[in-house]
Write a structure and sequence with these properties.
Layout (H helix, E strand, L loop, with lengths): L5 H24 L2 E8 L3 E7 L8 E8 L4 E9 L5 E5 L10 E9 L14 E4 L4 E2 L4 E4 L3 E22 L5 E3 L7 E3 L7 E7 L4 E7 L7 E14 L8 E9 L5 E3 L3 E5 L4 E4 L5 E9 L9 E5 L5 E5 L2 E2 L2 E6 L2 E8 L2 E2 L2 E8 L5 E7 L1 E3 L8 H11 L18 H9 L7
Parallel strand pairs: 9-19, 20-28
Antiparallel strand pairs: 1-2, 2-5, 3-4, 3-6, 6-7, 7-8, 10-14, 10-15, 10-16, 10-18, 11-15, 12-15, 13-14, 16-17, 20-24, 21-22, 21-25, 23-24, 25-27, 26-29
Helix pairs in contact: 2-3
């Protein structure tokens, strides 16, 4: 067996300490959580949390030359405690593709860039009126804020948009019963939010109330905090942007709109020290796990992850050590949950049990509404198969029998 001398071990510990110290110092000299708070056709505004290292005396905004990989300062922000800046960009700053690349870094008392303090890249595209920062990696469990920005409103008194995303990769953070917080446009307005968490879609509508003052110009309609659940691309898309004009009372399509990320458009990478767990669950009268999902929540009832990755009839879930609630869901079946499940390095497999069949409308109870759906499908009045509880491709006496066996049962 190979042995190590005390000197070798001390050297390893020394270099490890140097690495950790260097990493900590690099984090101290950077402005943190940089986010775009405003963007128009001629200007951009940033906010951030200040650096903590005493060597930092201010910050600079840099134009980044993506071809030559060079950064040139275009704005100096004095003061270590500064937390924001605005910049009016001129046409000559843009390249042939109408694109401008920006970064923010820290400077010392001599207005010199402090090595290692540069932020990630922000990309401004003028011809499509969009702010699309470059790809960045976000760890599972992190939260990224987006703002929905409306441009060139004319006498607007209400507005709406649709936001789509991949629900297996990210989920909005529920704030006070809604996934979206109003922005500066119609901040105290009346809102309607239709949130389809399962399919990853939000319809947000807001209207002024009482002393209505038509709005002209640009502004942020709403903020959304997305929590990264799993590896992958979140595919966040903004569409169906509309507003009602006080002039004619009609709905107008908005030509100019975009998302403003507080960080970059992002890919999600796994957390270190995560544990891969196999979750065993069965569908009562089916051999395959058709449509099954495992939803994991923490002690605060916040969604930690959602998985539909089935391998050899087991659903694979990746989690940090901790205590969770695991819930299995599947179309046509009652939910099945277990609470206070401790995940650690010994957690190879979790057995949830069998999901009860018969919930045709997926409201987590089996009752006369499910019977009505089965009757319609039994008589071939509709073409869906919501009540094909045994998965044989036909709604018949067997499915009626299954519903009868489980009638008036509810999920947990």
């Amino acid at each position: 067996m190979r042995s190590f001398s005390k000197t070798s071990i001390l050297l390893c510990l020394f270099f490890l300490l140097v690495f950790i110290t260097a990493y900590a110092l690099e984090e101290d000299i950077k402005p943190k959580n940089i986010r775009v708070i405003s963007l128009t056709g001629s200007s951009i505004s940033f906010e951030w949390e200040p650096a903590t290292d005493d060597s930092v005396k201010g910050y600079q905004l840099y134009k980044y030359d993506i071809q030559n990989t060079e950064s040139n300062p275009i704005l100096t922000i004095d003061g270590k405690s500064s937390t924001s800046c605005s910049y009016d960009f001129a046409e000559h700053l843009f390249d042939d593709n109408n694109t401008l690349y920006l970064k923010i870094g820290s400077i010392n008392t001599n207005n010199m860039y402090i090595s290692g303090s540069m932020s990630d890249l922000f990309t401004i595209i003028t011809d499509s009126c969009s702010a699309v920062p470059s790809t960045n990696e976000v760890m599972v469990g992190d939260t990224v804020q987006y703002a929905v920005y409306f441009k060139n409103l004319h006498d607007a008194i209400s507005a709406s948009f649709t936001l789509d995303y991949d629900p297996l990769v990210v989920q909005p953070v529920d704030t006070s019963g809604s996934p979206i917080s109003p922005g500066d446009l119609f901040a105290n307005g009346l809102t309607v939010v239709n949130w389809d968490a399962e399919n990853g879609s939000i319809l947000f509508s807001i209207s002024q109330q009482e002393n209505i003052q038509p709005y002209n110009g640009d502004g942020i309609l709403g903020y959304i905090d997305f929590k990264a659940l799993n590896e992958g691309e979140p595919n966040i898309q903004l569409s169906n942007t509309k507003y009602v004009s006080a002039v004619d009372g009609d709905i107008h399509q908005l030509a100019y709109h975009y998302l403003i990320p507080s960080q970059q458009q992002f890919s999600i990478i796994p957390q270190p020290n995560t544990i891969a767990v196999n979750v065993a669950a069965k569908l009562q009268y089916k051999n395959a796990l058709d449509g099954i999902k495992i939803i994991v929540t923490n002690a605060n009832n916040e969604i930690v992850t959602i998985s539909d990755m089935v391998v050899e009839n087991l659903v694979q879930v990746t989690l940090l050590p901790g205590t969770y609630t695991l819930k299995a869901t599947a179309p046509g079946h009652l939910d099945l949950a277990k609470t206070n499940i401790t995940i650690d390095e010994t957690s190879a497999q979790i057995d949830l049990g069998t999901l009860i069949a018969g919930d045709a409308n997926n409201d987590n109870q089996i009752d006369e509404q499910d019977l009505a759906i089965l009757r319609n499908e039994y008589l071939n009045k509709v073409s869906t198969t919501d009540s094909d509880f045994n998965g044989d491709g036909i709604v018949d006496l067997i499915d009626l029998t299954i519903l009868g066996i489980n009638y008036h049962k509810t999920g947990n």
